[in-house]
Specification:
The chain is α/β, with parallel strands linked by helices. The protein has eight helices and twelve strands.
Length: 237
């Protein structure tokens, strides 16, 4: 798997250097020079890990860390900053960062820390799919919203797996029928709509926002809720 990293860093020279070095190490890298741009890139690219500078020109890095963690509770966040105070490290970790590296730093150490975070987040659970707060283990036929366990029937599990394999892609009704039921079902059957209702009911049982959305006249898509809360504009809290 070739991991995608999001680098939020306003120092253009350092950003370009890190992008080149990390891509040479085998990663894909998306960069952002401001906090607002970083939040937009997060939603657009769904990276595997975020490298976050705290001192950005438009937004406080701690606030960005808080919003990223609210948006995705399990996304690895590595803070990379010139702030050396212990209080800043503690605050960053308390807001949800997974690691904290102070500038200037050694490139090999940065690479090692990235590898450790990715290994902990992804390689420790082979075959487990993840999208925002939703995880699915096809071997156990078990889904989770956060820490809530969601038992699934065989057909529900297969339907959810197809969505998890194609996040943010519009899946046509014909495609879903073929992948879940095989040939023999068609547009005259409403079994797909029935199982979508079953799946939504279980995934949203405790008021969680909807992830499986209807695309009228076409099919369905697994994507972020309409009210996804990481707007770049400041909010009261």
């Amino acid at each position: 798997m070739r991991y995608l990293l999001l680098l939020i860093e306003d120092d253009a020279e350092l950003s370009a250097f890190l992008k080149e070095a990390l891509e040479a190490a085998g990663y894909r890298v998306v960069t952002a020079g401001t906090g607002k741009q970083g939040l937009r890139e997060l939603v657009q690219w769904s990276p595997n890990l975020v490298i976050l500078d705290l001192m950005l020109p438009d937004m406080d890095g701690f606030e960005i860390c808080r919003r990223i963690r609210k948006y995705d509770p399990k996304l690895p966040i590595l803070i990379l900053t010139g702030r050396k105070e212990v209080a800043d490290r503690v605050r960053g970790l308390n807001l949800g960062a997974d690691d904290y590296l102070v500038k200037p730093f050694d490139l090999q150490e940065l690479h090692a820390r990235i590898q450790a975070l990715l290994r902990r987040a992804y390689e420790a659970q082979p075959g487990v799919y993840r999208f925002l707060d939703l995880t699915f283990d096809p071997m156990a036929r078990e889904a989770r919203r956060g820490q809530r366990i969601i038992p699934l029937t065989q057909r529900e599990a297969r339907l959810l797996q197809v969505f998890m394999e194609h996040p943010r892609q519009v899946l046509t009704r014909d495609f879903l029928y073929q992948e879940v039921w095989g040939y023999g079902y068609g547009q005259t059957s409403n079994v797909l709509d029935v199982y979508i209702r079953y799946l939504r009911r279980k995934l949203e049982a405790q008021g969680e926002p909807r992830l499986i959305h209807t695309v009228r006249g076409v099919g369905y898509i697994l994507r972020e809720p309409e009210e996804v809360g990481i707007s770049p504009t400041p909010t009261d809290h």
